[in-house]
Amino acid sequence: MRRAWPLLLVVAVAVTLRLARAADPRRIVLVDELARPSLRHPLGCGDGGVDLLAVATEALLRGLLLALVVAAFSLVLGTTLGAAAGLRGGVAARALTRLCDGLQAFPSFVLALALVAAVPRPSRLHVAVVLALTAWAPFARLALAELRVIRGLAYVEAARALGAPPLQVLLRHAIPAALPTARAQLGSTASALLVSDAALAFLGLGPADGVSLGALVDQGVGTLVRAPHVLMVGAGALTLAAVTVQALADRRGV
Predict the structure, then answer these.
(1) What is the pLDDT of residue 131?
(2) Which residue from 1, 162, 135 is spatially nearest to 73, judged by alpha carbons?
(3) Are 146 and 175 within 8 A, CB to CB?
(4) pTM of the model
Protein backbone atom coordinates (compact mmCIF):
# COMPACT_ATOMS: atom_id res chain seq x y z
CA MET A 1 0.00 0.00 0.00
CA ARG A 2 1.47 3.30 -1.10
CA ARG A 3 -0.25 5.18 1.73
CA ALA A 4 1.81 3.26 4.30
CA TRP A 5 4.90 5.43 3.79
CA PRO A 6 3.95 8.07 6.45
CA LEU A 7 3.58 5.31 9.04
CA LEU A 8 6.84 3.68 8.01
CA LEU A 9 8.60 7.05 8.20
CA VAL A 10 7.26 7.77 11.69
CA VAL A 11 8.25 4.30 12.90
CA ALA A 12 11.74 4.64 11.40
CA VAL A 13 12.29 8.03 13.04
CA ALA A 14 10.93 6.82 16.39
CA VAL A 15 13.12 3.71 16.35
CA THR A 16 16.19 5.77 15.41
CA LEU A 17 15.57 8.28 18.21
CA ARG A 18 14.87 5.52 20.70
CA LEU A 19 18.09 3.71 19.84
CA ALA A 20 20.08 6.94 19.84
CA ARG A 21 18.56 8.00 23.15
CA ALA A 22 19.79 5.41 25.63
CA ALA A 23 17.79 6.93 28.51
CA ASP A 24 15.44 4.57 30.33
CA PRO A 25 11.86 5.91 29.97
CA ARG A 26 11.15 4.70 33.52
CA ARG A 27 14.25 6.20 35.15
CA ILE A 28 13.44 8.82 37.79
CA VAL A 29 15.82 11.75 38.30
CA LEU A 30 14.14 14.06 40.80
CA VAL A 31 16.55 16.91 40.20
CA ASP A 32 15.29 17.13 36.57
CA GLU A 33 11.58 16.99 37.42
CA LEU A 34 9.50 18.99 34.90
CA ALA A 35 12.67 20.46 33.37
CA ARG A 36 12.12 22.48 30.19
CA PRO A 37 13.57 21.33 26.85
CA SER A 38 17.34 21.64 26.64
CA LEU A 39 20.32 20.14 24.84
CA ARG A 40 20.48 17.44 27.49
CA HIS A 41 16.76 16.71 27.28
CA PRO A 42 15.49 17.80 23.81
CA LEU A 43 11.80 17.46 24.77
CA GLY A 44 12.23 18.24 28.45
CA CYS A 45 11.37 16.07 31.44
CA GLY A 46 8.15 14.98 33.07
CA ASP A 47 7.08 13.89 36.54
CA GLY A 48 10.00 12.44 38.47
CA GLY A 49 12.44 13.76 35.88
CA VAL A 50 11.74 11.08 33.26
CA ASP A 51 13.16 11.97 29.84
CA LEU A 52 10.18 12.86 27.62
CA LEU A 53 11.93 11.97 24.36
CA ALA A 54 12.58 8.44 25.62
CA VAL A 55 9.04 8.12 27.03
CA ALA A 56 7.32 9.54 23.93
CA THR A 57 9.20 7.38 21.41
CA GLU A 58 8.81 4.22 23.48
CA ALA A 59 5.10 4.88 24.12
CA LEU A 60 4.46 5.72 20.46
CA LEU A 61 6.08 2.49 19.25
CA ARG A 62 4.21 0.39 21.81
CA GLY A 63 0.90 2.04 20.96
CA LEU A 64 1.40 1.55 17.22
CA LEU A 65 2.40 -2.08 17.71
CA LEU A 66 -0.66 -2.88 19.80
CA ALA A 67 -3.07 -1.07 17.47
CA LEU A 68 -1.69 -2.61 14.27
CA VAL A 69 -1.48 -6.15 15.68
CA VAL A 70 -5.06 -6.05 16.99
CA ALA A 71 -6.32 -4.45 13.76
CA ALA A 72 -4.54 -7.06 11.61
CA PHE A 73 -5.93 -9.90 13.76
CA SER A 74 -9.41 -8.39 13.51
CA LEU A 75 -9.03 -8.07 9.73
CA VAL A 76 -8.17 -11.76 9.36
CA LEU A 77 -10.81 -13.02 11.79
CA GLY A 78 -13.61 -10.73 10.69
CA THR A 79 -13.02 -11.18 6.96
CA THR A 80 -12.82 -14.96 7.29
CA LEU A 81 -16.01 -15.20 9.36
CA GLY A 82 -17.86 -12.74 7.14
CA ALA A 83 -16.76 -14.42 3.92
CA ALA A 84 -17.64 -17.88 5.23
CA ALA A 85 -21.08 -16.80 6.44
CA GLY A 86 -21.75 -14.76 3.31
CA LEU A 87 -20.74 -17.65 1.04
CA ARG A 88 -23.04 -20.00 2.90
CA GLY A 89 -25.89 -17.48 3.20
CA GLY A 90 -29.16 -18.21 4.95
CA VAL A 91 -29.06 -18.84 8.68
CA ALA A 92 -25.28 -18.40 8.94
CA ALA A 93 -25.36 -14.94 7.36
CA ARG A 94 -28.31 -13.82 9.48
CA ALA A 95 -26.73 -15.11 12.70
CA LEU A 96 -23.45 -13.32 12.05
CA THR A 97 -25.29 -10.14 11.14
CA ARG A 98 -27.22 -10.22 14.44
CA LEU A 99 -24.00 -10.87 16.37
CA CYS A 100 -22.28 -7.92 14.70
CA ASP A 101 -25.34 -5.75 15.36
CA GLY A 102 -25.20 -6.62 19.04
CA LEU A 103 -21.48 -5.93 19.35
CA GLN A 104 -21.62 -2.64 17.48
CA ALA A 105 -24.76 -1.43 19.26
CA PHE A 106 -22.98 -1.55 22.62
CA PRO A 107 -20.29 1.14 23.11
CA SER A 108 -17.05 -0.79 22.66
CA PHE A 109 -15.02 1.56 24.86
CA VAL A 110 -17.44 1.11 27.75
CA LEU A 111 -17.11 -2.66 27.40
CA ALA A 112 -13.30 -2.39 27.30
CA LEU A 113 -13.37 -0.08 30.30
CA ALA A 114 -15.45 -2.53 32.33
CA LEU A 115 -13.36 -5.57 31.42
CA VAL A 116 -9.95 -3.95 31.95
CA ALA A 117 -11.12 -2.46 35.26
CA ALA A 118 -11.90 -5.98 36.46
CA VAL A 119 -8.23 -7.00 36.04
CA PRO A 120 -6.10 -6.23 39.14
CA ARG A 121 -2.91 -5.44 37.17
CA PRO A 122 -3.80 -4.98 33.49
CA SER A 123 -1.04 -5.54 30.95
CA ARG A 124 -0.87 -4.71 27.25
CA LEU A 125 -1.98 -8.25 26.50
CA HIS A 126 -5.16 -7.70 28.53
CA VAL A 127 -5.83 -4.45 26.70
CA ALA A 128 -5.21 -6.07 23.30
CA VAL A 129 -7.55 -8.99 24.02
CA VAL A 130 -10.32 -6.71 25.28
CA LEU A 131 -10.09 -4.39 22.27
CA ALA A 132 -10.05 -7.35 19.86
CA LEU A 133 -13.38 -8.63 21.23
CA THR A 134 -15.32 -6.09 19.19
CA ALA A 135 -12.80 -4.83 16.60
CA TRP A 136 -13.46 -7.71 14.19
CA ALA A 137 -17.16 -6.91 13.72
CA PRO A 138 -16.80 -4.12 11.11
CA PHE A 139 -14.59 -6.36 8.95
CA ALA A 140 -17.15 -9.17 9.17
CA ARG A 141 -19.96 -6.85 8.08
CA LEU A 142 -17.94 -5.61 5.09
CA ALA A 143 -17.14 -9.17 4.02
CA LEU A 144 -20.80 -10.17 4.38
CA ALA A 145 -21.85 -7.28 2.15
CA GLU A 146 -19.23 -8.15 -0.46
CA LEU A 147 -20.21 -11.82 -0.53
CA ARG A 148 -23.85 -11.02 -1.29
CA VAL A 149 -22.58 -9.97 -4.71
CA ILE A 150 -19.55 -12.25 -5.09
CA ARG A 151 -21.30 -15.55 -4.40
CA GLY A 152 -23.53 -15.01 -7.42
CA LEU A 153 -20.72 -14.29 -9.88
CA ALA A 154 -20.01 -16.70 -12.71
CA TYR A 155 -16.58 -17.90 -11.58
CA VAL A 156 -17.85 -18.74 -8.08
CA GLU A 157 -20.84 -20.61 -9.48
CA ALA A 158 -18.54 -22.41 -11.92
CA ALA A 159 -16.21 -23.51 -9.10
CA ARG A 160 -19.16 -24.89 -7.17
CA ALA A 161 -20.57 -26.62 -10.25
CA LEU A 162 -17.22 -28.33 -10.87
CA GLY A 163 -17.37 -29.79 -7.37
CA ALA A 164 -14.83 -27.56 -5.60
CA PRO A 165 -14.97 -28.09 -1.81
CA PRO A 166 -16.50 -25.18 0.16
CA LEU A 167 -13.16 -24.52 1.89
CA GLN A 168 -11.40 -24.18 -1.47
CA VAL A 169 -14.06 -21.77 -2.73
CA LEU A 170 -13.71 -19.77 0.49
CA LEU A 171 -9.92 -19.54 0.38
CA ARG A 172 -9.43 -19.11 -3.37
CA HIS A 173 -12.40 -16.94 -4.29
CA ALA A 174 -14.43 -15.53 -1.38
CA ILE A 175 -11.72 -14.19 0.94
CA PRO A 176 -9.49 -12.70 -1.83
CA ALA A 177 -12.51 -10.91 -3.28
CA ALA A 178 -13.51 -9.45 0.11
CA LEU A 179 -10.01 -8.38 1.20
CA PRO A 180 -9.63 -5.12 -0.81
CA THR A 181 -12.63 -3.50 0.86
CA ALA A 182 -11.64 -4.87 4.27
CA ARG A 183 -8.11 -3.47 3.93
CA ALA A 184 -9.58 0.01 3.47
CA GLN A 185 -11.07 -0.35 6.97
CA LEU A 186 -7.72 -1.34 8.50
CA GLY A 187 -6.40 2.19 9.04
CA SER A 188 -9.61 3.51 10.61
CA THR A 189 -9.80 0.54 12.96
CA ALA A 190 -6.13 0.78 13.97
CA SER A 191 -6.49 4.52 14.62
CA ALA A 192 -9.56 3.94 16.80
CA LEU A 193 -7.75 1.18 18.70
CA LEU A 194 -4.77 3.45 19.28
CA VAL A 195 -7.00 6.16 20.75
CA SER A 196 -8.93 3.61 22.86
CA ASP A 197 -5.67 2.23 24.25
CA ALA A 198 -4.55 5.76 25.11
CA ALA A 199 -7.92 6.55 26.69
CA LEU A 200 -7.73 3.50 28.96
CA ALA A 201 -4.22 4.49 30.07
CA PHE A 202 -5.39 8.09 30.59
CA LEU A 203 -8.01 6.76 33.03
CA GLY A 204 -5.34 4.79 34.89
CA LEU A 205 -6.23 1.40 33.41
CA GLY A 206 -3.14 0.91 31.29
CA PRO A 207 0.08 -1.00 31.98
CA ALA A 208 1.61 -0.40 35.40
CA ASP A 209 4.92 0.89 34.00
CA GLY A 210 3.19 4.09 32.83
CA VAL A 211 4.98 4.10 29.45
CA SER A 212 2.00 4.77 27.20
CA LEU A 213 0.61 7.68 25.23
CA GLY A 214 -2.46 7.97 27.45
CA ALA A 215 -0.38 8.05 30.64
CA LEU A 216 1.83 10.73 29.09
CA VAL A 217 -1.21 12.87 28.24
CA ASP A 218 -2.57 12.35 31.75
CA GLN A 219 0.76 13.47 33.17
CA GLY A 220 0.63 16.55 30.95
CA VAL A 221 -2.87 17.48 32.12
CA GLY A 222 -1.76 17.23 35.73
CA THR A 223 1.23 19.51 35.16
CA LEU A 224 -0.33 21.85 32.59
CA VAL A 225 0.20 25.07 34.56
CA ARG A 226 3.74 24.32 35.74
CA ALA A 227 5.07 22.50 32.67
CA PRO A 228 2.88 22.83 29.55
CA HIS A 229 5.55 21.17 27.42
CA VAL A 230 4.64 17.75 28.91
CA LEU A 231 1.10 17.91 27.52
CA MET A 232 2.37 19.20 24.18
CA VAL A 233 4.71 16.22 23.85
CA GLY A 234 2.04 13.69 24.86
CA ALA A 235 -0.76 15.15 22.72
CA GLY A 236 1.61 15.64 19.78
CA ALA A 237 2.83 12.03 19.89
CA LEU A 238 -0.73 10.69 20.11
CA THR A 239 -1.95 12.89 17.26
CA LEU A 240 1.01 11.97 15.06
CA ALA A 241 0.46 8.25 15.64
CA ALA A 242 -3.30 8.42 15.02
CA VAL A 243 -2.99 10.50 11.84
CA THR A 244 -0.30 8.31 10.26
CA VAL A 245 -2.27 5.13 10.99
CA GLN A 246 -5.48 6.70 9.70
CA ALA A 247 -3.71 7.36 6.37
CA LEU A 248 -3.85 3.61 5.73
CA ALA A 249 -7.63 3.91 5.40
CA ASP A 250 -7.44 5.92 2.16
CA ARG A 251 -8.93 3.68 -0.54
CA ARG A 252 -6.52 5.07 -3.10
CA GLY A 253 -3.77 3.32 -1.16
CA VAL A 254 -5.35 -0.13 -1.55
Answers:
(1) 93
(2) 135
(3) no
(4) 0.87
